[in-house]
Amino acid sequence: MNNFKLKKNDLFVEDISIKKLAGKFATPFYCYSSNAIINKFKKFESPFRNSDTIICYAVKANPNIAILKILSNLGAGAEVVSVGELRRALKAGIKAKKIVFSGVGKKFSEIKFAIEKNILQINIESIEELELITKIAKNLRKKVQIGIRINPNIDAKTHTKISTGREEDKFGLNIETAKKIFLNYRSNPNLDIVGLSVHIGSQIMSLSPFKKAFLKIKNFIKKINKNEKIIKFLDLGGGIGINYKDEKIINFNSYAKIISDISNDLGCKLILEPGRILVAESGILVTRVLFIKKNKKKTFAIIDTGMNDLLRPALYDAYHDIQSIKKGIGRKSLYTIVGPICETADTFAKNKLLNRLNTGEILFFKNVGAYGASMSSSYNSRPIIMELIIHKKNFSIIRTEDTVLNQISREKIPSWVSKIK
Ligand SMILES: Cc1ncc(COP(=O)(O)O)c(C=O)c1O
Description:
This protein is of the alpha/beta class. The protein folds into two domains: 158 residues, Beta Barrel (Lyase, Ornithine Decarboxylase, Chain A, domain 1); 212 residues, TIM Barrel (Alpha-Beta Barrel), CATH 3.20.20.10. 28% of the residues lie in helices and 25% in strands. It has twelve helices and 20 strands. Strands 4, 13, 14, 15, 16, 17, 18, 19 and 20 form a nine-stranded mixed sheet that branches. α5 links the parallel β7 and β8. α8 packs parallel to α9. The longest helix is centred in the middle third of the chain and has 18 residues. 43% of the residues are buried. It binds pyridoxal-5'-phosphate.
């Protein structure tokens, strides 16, 4: 079902009019379709339903507690990369035994909290991290389940800034180091090293890099498990891309097939960590045109949302389609769509052909449910914006807009400053 429909000079998200919402609430705001999330999760999960698999949603894609709760109700676990994400996942009711903790730079306090909460697994990314976990676990008299994140040296053929599986990337450990870890740490009474994990990047559009990476891991598991079943958990990460602009996406059944082909004779429990694919298409960013400005080269449409609300275009040159909710008539024009932030990087589209835009007109960005709100900031002292979710005929605010007063209230002027002349 298509949860976003343009009709009668309006956009409907499920049964709710965006024109009405934009009349009620100040723009910009994020707006999600709950059905889009529910349907995508069910579709993704379906080929894995009869296998021993935990779908650990990558919280970084969109950490809103309401979205976590929806996914938790559908049976998802969580993949987290900070204690903040871990707290959110627990608060949303995700069982600790369905949570894996990844990331190259976990702090002492974060590791301690994760161990105290008895989460399923900590995926380690360095020997120093493993040493620290050992110490903390010993002090707490706990045995911690460990996964070793492998860097398979595979190029995911995605944007370089979201490639994570090449040797030059900071993520994971090579197979030689992983072997040493098994030799040197396996008998440690505070560690239960039973997992391997791999995540080679995000917005991956072809199965081939997955296949190559998974095969490397499979061969390694076969060696390690030759005489004794040491590896019991195989975490294959996330990374499936979505269609932002005329891109052909990976078929879930084909993805599931390569996973079953590599894993069916290993007897491991599977963990998958999808993020973007579950939520990206569920979200739009609603904005208004502030001004139209022409110079000799361009016509700018200056809108009321900026790179602080949606960073992906500035950070990765990422494409997000932008449309008006109005059905266009008459001549089209080329617009460069920019935000109000004092950076030239605050550009969302160059020379985009759109129906004639007017000041105050409502536009929306598509496919911003993942890495949209989650990457937002208050740069230029712009408050973090509101998030709404729609469920059929109802809408709910799932994050209120921050305020500048709130931001300022956390800042302090030391007394000595007043003496400066
Ligand atoms: C370890 C790990 N797992 C899963 C994900 C989710 O990736 P995606 O949103 O592309 O599915 C990420 C994202 O970078 C990650 O770092």
